[in-house]
Task: structure prediction
Amino acid sequence: MTVEKSLDSYIDAVATALSLPVEEAWRPAVRANLEVSLRLARLIDEFPLPDETEPASIYTA
Amino acid sequence: MTVNTDGLSAQQIAQAVIDRKLSALDATEAALARIVARDSVLNSFTDITADRARATAKAIDAKIDAGQNAGPLAGVPFAVKNLFDVKGLATRAGSKINRDLALSSRDATLIERMEAAGAVLIGALNMGEYAYDFTGENVHDGPSRNPHDPTRMSGGSSGGSGSAVGGALVPIALGSDTNGSIRVPSSFCGVFGLKPTYGRLSRARSFPFVASLDHLGPFARHVSDLALAYDAMQGADADDAACSTRPVEPVTSVLAEGIDGLRVAVAGGYFQQNVFPEAVEAVSRVAKALDAKTTVEIPEAARARAAAYVITTTEGASLHLDRLRKRPNDFDPAVRDRLIAGAMVPAPLVDRAQKFRRWYRAKVLELFKSVDVIIAPATPCVAPKLGQVNFVLDGVELPVRANIGIHTQPISFIGLPVVAVPVPLEPMPIGVQIIAAPWREDIALRVAHALEQMGVAAAPPPRGLSRGL
Result:
């Protein structure tokens, strides 16, 4: 399976799971945006962090 | 009452009102007249609250007539990005969908505080849909336009705020900044903008975007006006879970303390890449004026920008999930497609982005042990043309939208206070970020004030209004 088809399958699966509409006309833009998000997320994924690191979702500067 | 308020600062208007050389009502009428005369070009306003403004102004004049204190912003007209709740208006947040919301029953906290200080709300301002924007374009309301060249972007997402202040329609406007939405329009429109420390100013009763990263703050044509507005709006607020309980720390009285003894450094590495010559020139002028000879490396800035991107797209998707299901065709298609993609980013990556944020914050705070101020570009370029998709940098074609905020995102990601100062290059201005440690808005504002006094930073007169379209 190509990367593009694989991502399309993923988009279909998540869209179904979340009841999100993804019309065929929107698919190329959704895929392109998801590719950017996943590429940038990989920069975080590959960065080693100590197990004890606390998230900063409720953040105090 | 023959004072011409065109070109007067907020401070000058308030003083004239307090001295009874100008009535608050006349100041209000003058602002309303400027909007009528100029906003057909700028398209910065989406709502004009003329009746309310006149009533507020009359109440201020009555206070002054009665010998009461009308506040430090007495009679100063201001406007707010249309994601602030304004009593009696639906908070559209740049969208079509939100126009169906119930009318707001109460103003946003920051509006209440500005009016408690004597300011007069005269309207709500255009913005990018749901604040997911760096351009100032809006498919529903049309773009707000650049006051120095109406064929160019105002910047987003607080485009109307930058356009209205840059076009001198109002001396002060309020906006929001999640990834750069105050600093980018400040840069493109040539005005001063303050993005305070995360948690400093209440966001209560404003339409959110990314709770982890949302900030509110003022725009102005002078640093003293920025400080006046900021001082009026500070203070704890139980209606915003992220709002600090720190005491009010006024800055107006310390602006003139100068910059002697402050250690100023230029951000290197990431912040010197992907910049046009105008941005290099602007940073160079500011660095020279501040005698900044050292460079600091903000560690892992590219990863910080990536993490901010991931948190933004996923929290934004979470916020709009039900609207995406029920009214997908009522979104700007570009915003909708970004949000749908954001809903599909796996949760562990979001968690890691928040953990990275903690790590990065600790590293950057270490830098502030040896420096007080870091300077960096606000935008990589001057305002692009409206609708421009790509620009060419060092022979490489790059997408405009994705690159406008690359220098602002790693800073707001950890909530550092920043003043964007306008450097009045010809033909278009461009901004520089004056970045300080958390809760040290006073330092960033003192530096901005010094740059304004030196003439290095200034809000240029709007040059694009006579040109029209």
Residues 23 and 30 of chain A are 10 Å apart (CA to CA).
